[in-house]
Amino acid sequence: MGWIQDLRGKNVFIAGSKKNAGKTTFMNYAARKLKDCRLALMSIGIDGEESDGIFANPKPRIMIEENNLFVCSENELAASGTQYEILKAYPFRTALGRPVLARALRRGQAEISGPENNSQLAGLIADAREHGAETVFVDGAADRITHSATIGNAVLAYVARIEPENISSAISSLNILAASSECGLWNDGEPAKSCSIRLPGAVTESRAERAVSEYFASLRKTGNAIPGMPHASRPALIADNPACIFLSWQAWRRLAAKCDIFFLSKTSSILLIINLYNVDKADFERRFCSAGKCKVIYNPYAG
Amino acid sequence: MIKAREFSEFETFYALYKPLTVYGRAEKEKRRFFTDKSELENELDFIDAIKSLMAAKAVKDKLRHHLRNIPLIKADNPIESSAAELFLVRKFLMNVKAIFEMLPESTRNIFGAVWGSSALLALLDKGGRGEAFFIADCYSERLAAKRREILAADIKLKSLKEKRLREISSRYGFDFSDRDFLIILDKNFASFGEQHDLYAEPHDFGRLMIKPVYGNEYLSLAAERERLRAEEAVLEKKVVDQLIYAVNADRENLQLYIEAVRRIDTAVEKSRIAIDMDMTRPEINDSLPEISETGNTRGIIELKNARFIPLEKSLQKTELKYMPFSASFASRINILHGSNMGGKTVALKTFVFFQLLAQSGFYVPAEYCRVSLFNDICFIGGDGSASAGGLSSFGIEMNDFIKACGKLEKGPTLFIMDEFARTTNSEEGTALLSAILGWLSQRSGAFVFLATHLAGLEAPENSSWFCMKGFDRAAFGTYFEEHSSADLEEKLRRINRFMCYEMLNVSRESESRDAVKIAGILGVDKEIINLAGKIIADRKK
């Protein structure tokens, strides 16, 4: 359980392999394990409501312990089961209303929500810290891993629900996440150290192939892909962050065979929370190539 | 006006103006241009009133801290009933009160900063802890009683839960103390036989998710607690409604505070800029002075050691020295001519920059400055390569001119013309410009500042002529012989060193031919320079 204690003091971003992957269940679990630490709970999207708005599946409720902080809309605040004090009311509004940072004066259930963009999220996290939060949990929308890459002191907890029906696609995503954890960070401010291909925005198979082909075509024609730059047999491909990768595992491997992949930003610490449903752990491990620099936690709720 | 702001790089300066409250920022976005003297003097009085306070760093920092903390409240309509609104109103009042208390009475009077909400703030403070706000028990005895019931229920629930978890732990060895459920193997669960204190549901093939069953007493009490919480929410809503009623009863005061905060915030920021940039209060002419045929001794605009901030800032990054600018304009038609790179355009920009600063209610970076108030400032000209909507540069100029003429009906208008008609042939350009100047001289509301290097202009009798002093030929001659080769930056530095950016009032168009010499300094072949000199000499003959 040392990995749970490692979350102390961090901004923990929880993303999932799919809808109902178990993000909120994981957050509740981690929050209970860190009960001696003042937490702030917030969400990208809405969490803690009785059922999700898309599939009407029952969703886990969020219990806010006394003294912990939470972010929700002002309407949700009045309907929460806690007694609260308002620490900050934000000037922007989301689809759910105006977000409010509150402290629970009494234990109770609440729906948590949060902002809609990264700069607002950074502001909320800073406010939570200013008001004494030691560890911040951001329950994210499915597959939303962008936020953790752009905010400091972050841990990405990626919750994967592995079932026989989705095992190939889920493992493909995990493999890419693990491989990207081993990719370097590119310092955009410094001059290029070798020939590089900058690919801003989404890295799809067709965009990546075109960029790499153009690079090598230019190399064949001029001897140098970039005037004044030395020849490099393996160029650096620079993407924004791992969330911009929209490749299959096979396509990633083809790309990685031709160039070294770098990111402008990425989360330095990644936890892979693997919940296996009707899948044998040994089977899973045979298909999962390597965890890279990620830490893998299997079925944390097992008794 | 937009083109005048662009031409004079006023927006570069305006970006440095950063009010701290949402009200000040909204005021900034209005980009007010004062055309009424008393309103403008009021605005400048606000800066005066704050500037002396801002000299003390501790006061300045405290004032800025409270301004930064003022949240947005919308008091123009009744405030909605919510705890978040109460939090915002209380935070607003706390900071407004602190600001008002920092101001001497005379200053408070200038800003209309009259505090009258002590009772409301005291009421809201009952639910305050620092900046935080909560619906305190003291607002309602019934609410306090309900919360005591909830607390008792919570204690009992906790005790029942802990008892059941201890039983489960001793009976099955499962620890639910910090988790809601466990995943276990089917076969392990089956080994416990029939039991009633664990709930199990399939997790996947071979495993179950188990949860504690807390029993009927616990469930009944949990339902009761939920009912109590619903009643508490109703009582909380009542308290919020009562408090919001009190807030809305004081809405007139809130609106006055918003106005005062807006004025104080903009004055604080304008004062900060005035102090940081060593600015002085501009004098404002009562009305546009009578213009006699021969001009007027009292200037429409006077500048002494005026600094054009955008240029001064950019020169600070190089070794080039910035030369402050002094001038006095007393005629309606003012023609400025002189060398290429002699500073005509900068002089024009400086003048427009000052006019915009003053009419926007700022102090100005000059030893002395006096301006008249215009209804509008129209810049006529392009950058020579510009084209918009298919119009050539010449077309754009004509279009600007026609629009500016249309503004004359509304009041005194400044026409700023930089190298007007430069892109057409000099013969027609000179003729057109001469005709325009003649036409404008007959419109009493037209005030013209023209920079040109077109020769042979026929200007009206009542126009004033200025020239930039230009090159110090004698000093440069000696220097240039000794330093004939240099890079572009050094060449520009040389030009700057020997160029006198001084404006002279001259009787009429005067000789000023430095273009060939400057071309030589910038590196044009010596043979071409000599030939050009010979052609000029031949023409003179």
What does this structure look like?
The complex is a heterodimer of chains A (303) and B (541). Helix content of chain A is 29%, strand content 27%. With 303 residues, chain A is an alpha/beta fold. In chain A, the strands form four sheets. Chain A has a nine-stranded mixed β-sheet, with helices on both faces. Chain A has a four-stranded parallel β-sheet with strand order 10-15-13-11. In chain A, strands 3-7 form a two-stranded antiparallel ribbon. The radius of gyration of chain A is 21 Å and the shape is globular. In chain A, 43% of the residues are buried. Chain B is α/β, with parallel strands linked by helices and 541 residues long. Chain B folds into three domains: 127 residues, no CATH class; 83 residues, no CATH class; 258 residues, 3-Layer(aba) Sandwich (Rossmann fold), CATH 3.40.50. Chain B contains 20 helices and 15 strands. Classes of the chains: A alpha/beta (303), B alpha/beta (541). Chains A and B meet through α2, α3 and β5 of A and α6, β2, α9, β3 and α11 of B.
